[in-house]
Amino acid sequence: MLARGPGVSGRRIEFHFKPQGPTIDAYLRDRTRRCLICGPLGSGKTAASCWKGFRIMTNQAPDRQRVRRTRIVAVRNTYSDLLSTTAKDWRDLFEDLGQFKEGGREPPCHYLDFALPDRTHVIAEMVFLALDRIEHVKKLRGMQVTAVMLSEAKELPFGVVSMADLRTGRYPKEVPATWHGMFGDTNAPDTDHWYYQMAEKDFHLNAAGERMRGPKGWRFLKQPGGLIRADRNAPWQPNPDAENLRNLPLDYYMEGAQGKAEDWIRVNLANEYGFVREGKPVYPDYNDGQMCREFPLVRELGLYVGLDFGLTPALLVGQRPLNGQWRIHNELCTEDTGIHRFAGEMNLFMNQRYNGWPVRGIWGDPAGGQRQAGDVDERTAFQILAANNIACEPAPGNNDFLLRSEAFAAPMRRFIDGQPGMLIHPQCEITRKGLQGGYAYKRVKVAGDERYRDLPDKNRFSHPCEAGQYMVLGAGEGTTILQSTSARIDLDVAGFRQMMGYS
């Protein structure tokens, strides 16, 4: 492609781009209203998105003045990431075709102005909009654009994506947009992310009645991972089908995996769905490969239930056979749910799954014995549950975090009859992710050292894990820990007295 114009001081510039892989080629050629590509680090997907945006600009039909007008918005969650990656890649490719302006209250923008060999002129805007400033979220709501480029789509909430979708096709005014819609790239998201749900779980029927992956009007492309392995326990190997290899250093992926955590490698290098844990896991002894499996429950043994309160209440259901093994069978996790509504959801949940089963005990966060500030209802959480026929008691231990966290960890360190002392059913997805590192101590930024907060972060993974803590404490798991702790203290005191010569 040739370009010449005021933005390049009359110079003639020639562009060449060869897609480095069949997935990138399909992404560039795709005309679906919404097309997203998922790939590992180094796969060339960000550069491909930039080229896709540039082609939209040059393929736009000209108006009566023979001017091709477009406006594209590149969206990312923070300005630090947007300017250091997306905008940098765009400027490296196309900055000579116009002027880049940043600063002030307006978001950074590249104003392109150049001529094409067919004597038409391109006047376009590439606006770089991050969503870490409330005024820019509002600005997106009022924009009239041709297309939206989603950069690192997994970091964007679906509400923002939905709003961006409805801003496209509204520019230019004189000539309808030749193509309008959303496109973008991302690393592999978690399995409970909107991207995974749409790309892997949703389907639609095409005009021929064939079942197609993804909702109608959407296309999701997945690049080969940079690393592959025969099975979960096999070592990682370079993937010969990985894309963009000729633009990467030799052994880029194998060397990049050195010293990295397994979950980081799976997501960022192998392009597998999952989450990368941050911080120090509360339960490093949990091994999902060994402890996650399906298992039967015995009705006669009954059930134990643990509850965590707040505006994100969670419930965990488990059973403890006679051999002392804990079997965590199910979870109920909610968001923005008051205790009144949660009581109804809990009753429905238990009736649908465990109707008629004996419940040996229900224990909850002792803080549920206090009335919440600002709550119109003067009753405590335990009183509200009781009014809904849920006999819940405060878990013992005065809500001591070390005691309840250790009570839940203790079964993970035991082996009973050749099996782990704790099993987690696969349907407990959020609990499992919490145990694998989603429930973690946040790192404190200290130069030259790794330090972490004394208490773990409160998040969507912490609630079912803490519900499990209250459950095992109530069932007596903490009694053994308290006894062993007391015995250690007695021994320490006796030793001190002997050392000091006391009788």
The rounded distance between the terminal residues' Cα atoms is 95 Å
What oligomeric state best describes the polypeptide chains here?
Answer: single chain
Helix/strand structural class:
alpha/beta
Envelope shape: elongated
Taken together, the total number of domains comes to 3
Strand percentage: 15-25%
CATH superfamily of the largest domain: P-loop containing nucleotide triphosphate hydrolases
The biggest beta sheet reads: 8 strands, mixed
Our count of helices gives 15
What is the architecture of the largest domain at the second tier of CATH? Answer: 3-Layer(aba) Sandwich
Share of residues in helices = 25-40%
- Here the CATH topology of the largest domain equals Rossmann fold
CATH class categorisation of the largest domain? Alpha Beta
Major sheet: arrangement of strands: 5-6-7-4-8-9-3-12
Query: What is the number of beta strands?
Result: 26
Q: Uncertain regions: pLDDT < 50 for 5+ in a row? A: 485-497, 499-503
Q: What would the average pLDDT be, to the nearest integer?
A: 87
C-alpha Rg (nearest Å)? 28 Å
